[in-house]
């Protein structure tokens, strides 16, 4: 297959910037080890509990706003049997962050926990915590697979390369900078990635809306016979599944180790709560471009 060289160069520059940021952050992590009263693993996992508020908000937002979130939201709006009302991730993740800030931030931080498993280990012992660690591990693996799958699919379209190659390269870069700097590298590269996502998505929107090949999705809200509108609807028999999906994402987000890692990495309880509330605002905002793209695609498809 013919490689899209401009796309390859742009993605290459992106990875160089991300890897360079990760290496710089790893050096910052080593300097932080000397100032932190905690052990080395605590610096690696929760950043010495002193991430600044801007980085904390960025990495918390980026925890939810990834490839699966962006492509999944657009896909739901585009899907003729689903529509906007089924694109529940922006609202569910926002609710998850708010609930987490209200009820879980202070208890988790009060005892200086490092992971989600710590309170269970303290309460029920090592054997029980080892068992309940298994579903948490499976959830993380599937979450990573979702993100890498979305990334591979995107790169295969943009650069015209095999998706498996994109997944391997992306995973290798992420593992490398994480091993070098722990949470510091992850957090600071999240700032870069979130910046690219925000600018890139919002740059795409006006071009898509102004394209002569695109239909006006505001006019095409009701489409041809037997075709659901992009707004979608929830039938009575589907209400239970809609509620289940909403609860799955909302409550599942509260059970996410990455959420507590960010919460525990801030300097104070107030900073942790501000991080959650700010991310709860930014997550839906960053979902708007995906929704608009899905709506235009659905409207265009019905007029071809």
TrEMBL record:
Annotated GO CC locations: plasma membrane
CDD domains the record matches: SLC5sbd_CHT
Regions that span the bilayer: 6-25, 51-72, 84-105, 126-151, 163-184, 191-209, 276-298
Domain of life where this protein originates: Eukaryota
InterPro entries referenced in this protein's UniProt entry, alphabetically: Choline_transporter, Na/Glc_symporter_sf, Na/solute_symporter
Topological type in the membrane: Multi-pass membrane protein
Principal place of residence: membrane
One record GO biological process: acetylcholine biosynthetic process
GO molecular function: choline:sodium symporter activity
Subcellular location: Membrane
UniProt keyword annotations, A-Z: Glycoprotein, Ion transport, Membrane, Neurotransmitter biosynthesis, Sodium, Sodium transport, Symport, Transmembrane, Transmembrane helix, Transport
UniProt xrefs under PANTHER family: HIGH AFFINITY CHOLINE TRANSPORTER 1 (PTHR45897:SF5), HIGH-AFFINITY CHOLINE TRANSPORTER 1 (PTHR45897)
Protein family (similarity comment): Belongs to the sodium:solute symporter (SSF) (TC 2.A.21) family.
The protein, known as: High-affinity choline transporter 1-like
Taxonomic source organism: Champsocephalus esox
